[in-house]
Amino acid sequence: MKTQFLMGNEAIALGAIAAGVNAVAGYPGTPSTEVLETVAKNNNGNIYVEWSINEKAAMELTAGAAYTGARTMVTMKQVGLNVASDPLMSLAYLGVKGAMVVMVADDPGPISSQTEQDTRAFAAFSKLPCFDPSSVQEAYEMIQDAFRYSAEYNTPVFFRPTTRVCHAYASIQVKDPSDYVINKPEGFIKDTSRWVIFPRTTYLSHIKIEERNTLLQQVLSKYEKNTIIPGSLESPARKAIASHGISFSYVQDSLKNFDQRPAILKVATPFPFPEQLALEFLKNVDEVLCIEELDPVIERSLTYICGKHHLKVNIRGKLTGDISPAGENTCDSVKTALIKFLELAPASDIPDYSDAPALPARPPVLCAGCPHRASFYAVKQAMKNTKSLFCGDIGCYTLGNAMPLDMVDTCLCMGAGVNIAQGIGHLEPDTSCFAFVGDSTFFAAAITGVINAMYNKADMTLIVLDNSTTAMTGHQPHPGTGIRMMEFANGSRPEKPIDVANRINIEQVLKGIGLKTVKTVNPLELDKAISCVSSVAAEPGVKAIIFKSPCIVLEKSSSSAIVDPIKCINCKKCIRELGCPALTTDTDGRLVINQALCTGCMLCSQVCPVRAIDRKN
Asked: Fewer CB near the last or first residue (10 Å), C or N of the chain?
């Protein structure tokens, strides 16, 4: 064993490697992204790693690899599980031959997601085991347990860290490579009774799944990470805590400040729920506070067990209003709940930060020089004074909803904007409907929407914001870049695409679908961009504009813009209409350009009515 300082996601990746993983696929999504990237960086060439075009493709690929006897892992965030749920629900009935871990990072808060859905509930829905780590060290150890249980019971299993585990850092104990599991897949063996899903075999599989989960419930009650931590509170108080994940760590941290400690039930496998362990815990208490994030999974399970076994224990938590029904827990919120529930005051020497000033708000904004700002502005100018609809999508460009751009009227989920624009357009034919989608999202979720538009004779304009990367989640490659994740092994990032023959051209894809009008333009050439939008939007049917300009993080200009104080009339049109963070004012209220932020895109110079902004020499 050796000590390493690791992010939670790095620990999960190294744990998977130690468990003998043979193949890893996924789609980037915060807070899960670094898991797959870390596997790629530490790949000795024996692990197949890819960014798939979406979570469904990744799920199916890793399932196929697991059919060979391989140990596989698929990575995603909680909303990605929605995309992958179709194959997963059927796979739950078929099972796997090797091992398969479905790593789904949940995002309480949410911090960077559309939903606060709880994968623990999805595990019960799909009847698949779920592992829920509470710390970086436990995440490293538990991912190996997940592979072991998956292999033993021939089933996919969920591994469900949350943001505060994924992105926490800690010094942890990790195995030496000599102690890694070496898994050699047997290979795929044809067996239609096992690998071809039919209604009759599904019925029989369902029976086996229920039997397996009943057995697992007993087995997991003895799993060492499901545990009861004895308390120091004496009768008649008989109050106890049940918790899980990062909330368990908050409970542990908060209770350090109390002279007396209640017993704690730590639930590491929310499904199948460790009923026998919970029974042992409940028989010694009168009241339990369930401290958990998102759904009241533990609270409902304990309430059910109490009813089933006729235990007179008062179960409290989200359903009773003792814990917030939404959002993530914090050390402070947990401490407050404990004080109220235990009716005890913490030790007097604990500092009180209740009067501390609130942190300043930091709303997300498009980066200075982001080409998406120019794209939105070009469409806005071309379509002013017309009845127009601007459907957004998931990515950096969602930030186009902020003032002063105000160019995102709808945003639902990845790829939905294309179909939402059609739905509104069919009912409001006098509206010019636009759907904005990024290049990575185009491949992941939008192609079928465009085909639907062509087939059903929609009247809409598709705007593809092609910045040559998956920017929001950390600049991962996608089919349009010509770079595969396997080229990133051992931390290497090729300066130029290696498999350029495999680069998928968005314009060719759209023309292949049947679009007659597909224009590509640089949005930073503002007049050309506005003219292009005006002419293309006027055409009937489905048409597309590809605004192509690289993400400013990938290709920064060596120059910047500067204001000529003599020419400048201080109208502040550039600030009012663009909202670029590099445009600001000095103490006298005069326009200045922050040289530390400016990237030299020169969009502001094209907006300035007196051409008072020029490129700095």
From this structure: C
In 3D space, the residue among 483, 421, 477, 481 whose CA is nearest the CA of residue 446 turns out to be 421
The strand pair at 23-26 and 71-77 is best described as parallel
Helices (H) and strands (E) counted in the chain, each on its own, are 21, 22
DSSP-H helix ranges across 438-543:
439-441, 447-455, 506-513, 526-537
305/322 same-domain check: yes
Together in a domain, 488 and 510: yes
Burial of 353 (0-12, 13-18, 19+ CB in 10 A): exposed
* Measured distance CA(454)–CA(444) in Å, rounded: 19
Gyration radius from the chain CA atoms: 27
Q: 547: number of CA atoms within 13 Å, CB side?
A: 32
Q: What is the pLDDT of residues 566-605, one digit of tens each?
A: 999 999 999 999 999 999 999 999 999 999 999 999 999 9
Q: Tokens in use for 349? A: 């020497």
Close Cβ partners of 202 (under 8 Å, ≥ 6 residues apart): 93
Task: Give, in order, the Cα–Cα distances in Å from 400 to each of 232, 576, 604.
Answer: 54, 14, 17
**Burial class of residue 561 (count of CB atoms within 10 Å of its CB; 0-12, 13-18, 19+):** buried
Neighbours of 217 (CB within 10 A): 18
The residue count for the chain: 617
Per-residue three-class SS string for 368-388: CCCHHHHHHHHHHHHCCCCCE
Peptide bond before residue 325 is cis, with ω within 30 degrees of 0: no
What pLDDT does residue 501 have? 42
Q: Label residue 572 left, alpha or beta by phi (over 0 means left) and psi (-120 to 50 means alpha).
A: left
- Within 10 angstroms of residue 388's Cβ, the number of other Cβ atoms is 18
Read off the tokens for 133. 């780590």
Range with lowest mean pLDDT among 154-158, 259-263, 348-352, 387-391 = 348-352
Together in a domain, 51 and 93: yes
Model-level pTM greater than 0.85?
A: yes
CATH code of the domain covering residue 597: 3.30.70.20
At 397 the three-state DSSP class reads helix
Matching residue, tokens 């999805």? 122
The pLDDT of residue 468: 82
Closest-CA residue to 244 (of 234, 231, 229): 229
Whether residue 509 sits in one domain with residue 416: yes
Contacts of 83 (CB under 8 A, 6+ apart): 27, 54, 55, 56, 76, 414, 445
Structure tokens at 432: 């010019």
- pLDDT tens string 17-37: 999 999 999 999 999 999 999
Check residue 471 and give its pLDDT: 81
Quick check: 244 and 229 in contact, CB under 8 A?
A: no
pLDDT, position 489? 53
pLDDT in tens, 36-90: 999 999 998 899 999 999 999 999 999 999 999 999 999 999 999 999 999 999 9
Cis peptide before 550 (omega within 30 of 0): no
Domain that holds residue 256: 227-342
- In 3D space, the residue among 11, 37, 164, 224 whose CA is nearest the CA of residue 3 turns out to be 11
Whichever domain contains 336, its CATH number is 3.40.50.920
